[in-house]
Amino acid sequence: MSGFLETIVTHVKGVVAQSKATVSMADMRRTAEAPRVVRPFRKALEAKPVAVIAEVKRASPSKGDIALDLDAAKTARRYEEGGAAALSVLTEGKFFKGSLEDLKAARKAITLPVLRKEFIVDPYQLYETAAAGADAVLLIARILEPSQLGDFMALASELRLEALVEVFDEADIKKVAPFAPPLVGINNRNLKSFDTDITRAGRLSEYLPSGTTVVAASGIKDTEDIRRHLKAGISSFLVGESLVRAEDSVGLLRSWCNVKDEG
Fold first, then answer.
1. Where are the domains of the chain?
2. pTM tops 0.85, yes or no
3. Which of 7, 85, 169, 228 lies 20 to 30 Å from 77 when distance is taken between CA atoms?
């Protein structure tokens, strides 16, 4: 890690420490392990020819404030109406202006499976994720040691959370390979510089085992971007900013979900 990514991770570790002081690990674990209804995440993606994980996103370090007054529940309902396969909710507070309350409100408003998008650096956050009712959780390979990644994937499974493991380059793919994650997100955006290369996911997907459900994330703005990824064999997409900024997110989602691979 370097630069701004390290700054975010350092901040998140501090937030986790404060959270532990408010609700103990033992108490959070008890809540996380309570019975709950889980919505299958990967299955929802595989059920659609074009599967969009639509994101509830208020802000980002690279784009600044996007929609601070965003209503998570209303946004989630629009995404479901537009045909999204699943929902992603950013819960990091300082840099992305999100919260677990956004996740809870969004999931309550819809029937789609919900991913918690966060910088997961501590087991406590996985218990927190399950306790909040999420169905899946993002694990970023770049910020985790291999042993942590394996432990977090195992704990997520125990908590009935599907793990979307995010990679950025060949080194990340080598790191995650021993754990054979069934769900892999390839980030088109460099988390160090926040530069975006829309062709990255298509190139890197060739290094992943057959049968992996690949999700292209970041930089997807229009139908041509969707079609480009379809030609590379990727049919699942995580999209935030373009949908949040869209005047008609329902119509935009519907148009994307009807894109055909012309290759």
1. 3-257
2. yes
3. 228
